[in-house]
Write a structure and sequence with these properties.
About 65% of the residues lie in helices and about 0% in strands. With about 200 residues, it is an all-alpha fold. The longest helix has 25 residues, at about 55-75. It is elongated, with a radius of gyration of 19 Å. The termini are far apart. About 30% of the residues are buried.
């Protein structure tokens, strides 16, 4: 592989390389050598921008979380428009994309990564799922305030059902991002079932 290639945006190109490895080969294949080989650069490039490989992984996860936060704003902005079930179903399809799904097991199985994420993001937990849960909860509260969701709706429990059910639905898909992932109608049925008792008849 080339060792002297100048990268215009080294951090982003390393992130992009790591994402391709995650999607193609899974979390176990993600090593510093694999990332720099995939990016077509010298191994030293990674260590010029990050203290070590776990530091790179923390930055990768936080970059994905920031992207999810931006996607989540679309759901929050849809309060009061369209149909509640359709809004949530479309958001889950977007938020549970292939890269966030691949990052969940990466975080789960790397103890040092989890420890550093807890230090970087107070409150701990699986950082990559926090924006999804936050967006769903904020959306449900907004719709409840408008009367489009029942006043007594338990937003916390509904959020757990939607995020947990959505994660299982997408994570259990047999194929890659274009093969086996649940379609919008399947996700819509999940949302409609979870919200059946809190939407106006």
């Amino acid at each position: 592989m080339p060792t002297g290639v100048r990268l215009s945006d080294p951090r982003q190109q390393l992130f992009d390389a790591a994402e391709r490895i995650l999607l193609r080969d899974g979390p176990s294949a993600l090593t510093s050598r694999a990332v720099t080989d995939e990016a077509g650069c010298a191994k030293g490039v990674l260590h010029r921008h990050f203290d070590d490989f776990d530091g790179f992984l923390v930055a990768l996860v936080l970059d994905q979380e920031a992207r999810l936060q931006r996607d989540a704003e679309v759901l929050r902005a849809s309060v009061g428009t369209g149909a509640v079930v359709d809004n949530l179903a479309a958001a889950l399809v977007t938020l549970f994309g292939p890269v966030p799904l691949a990052i969940v097991p990466l975080v789960t199985f790397r103890d040092e990564l989890r420890a550093r994420l807890r230090a970087a993001v107070p409150g701990g937990g699986v950082a990559i799922l926090a924006p999804v849960a936050g967006a769903v909860a904020a959306y449900l509260v907004g719709e409840r305030d408008l009367g489009r969701v029942a006043p007594g709706a338990d937003v916390d429990t509904l959020t757990l059902a939607l995020v947990g059910g959505g994660h299982l639905l997408f994570a259990s898909a047999s194929g890659g991002p274009d093969d086996g992932a649940p379609d919008l109608e399947r996700v819509r049925r999940l949302v409609a079932t979870a919200l059946a008792d809190v939407l106006p008849r």
